Amino acid sequence: MALEAQTAVLAAISNAMVRLHKEQFGRGPTRARSEWAGPDQLVVTLEDTLTPAERRLAAMEEHQRLRDTRMLFQYAAQREFTDVVEHLTGRTVRAFVCGLDTRTDVACEVFVFAPNDGG
Question: pTM for the whole thing?
Answer without folding.
Answer: 0.90
